[in-house]
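User: I'll paste a sequence; please echo it back and then give the predicted structure.

Assistant: Echoing your sequence first, then the prediction.
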Amino acid sequence: MLIDIFHDTVCPWCRIGKKHLFDALAQWEGEAVNIRWHPFLLDNTIPPEGYEFRSFMKERKGISSAQLQQMFDYTRQAGEVAGVQLNFDKIRLAVNTQLAHILINIAPAEISNNIVESIYQAYFEDGLNLGDIEVLVAIGKNYQMDENNLRLKLTDNNAVEAVIAESTFARLNGINSVPTFMFNNKVKVDGSQSINVFVRALNRAKFIEVLTKQW
């Protein structure tokens, strides 16, 4: 089973959706799963130093401080129900996520899921700056990735351009929001749906695969 996931690393609903999907996979009794992570840059205009988080979010959403807090509280509670922490009080910067996606792209397949989770944890639990190369190098080193190679790739303009190109390609091919999940290139799930929705998507993708082989 091939699952393509389009996400951004500062999207709280992407973290919730990831948790729901993995909970569904824990229940599913199907074949082995290969997950591919794809960047979807929500705002690539943010400079490397980032913006003050709450001011940026209020301007982006066009809402008041009180409304922003209500939004954070609602999302945090949704995270708690799913089993993930979303500590918006610790987040100080709205960041450009290019470098975080480079780290995911260069991570070996067997650790990419763990790298994604560690990036989410760094931002949503620890409030770390995902635009800081040192933060990302530390995450990679925790999974025995080579530090010199990490620094080389994270400062490579070609790697940045590749992330931008992939994000643009996703938009041009009908991905309009994240998270978006594609199962075997046949079944699409938009948003951080329930565990049951993901289980049904897995079963449907498997059923389509079997039918295709029979025909």
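Residues 15 and 174 are 21 Å apart (CA to CA). The beta strands are 2-7, 34-39, 51-52, 93-94, 180-183, 187-190.
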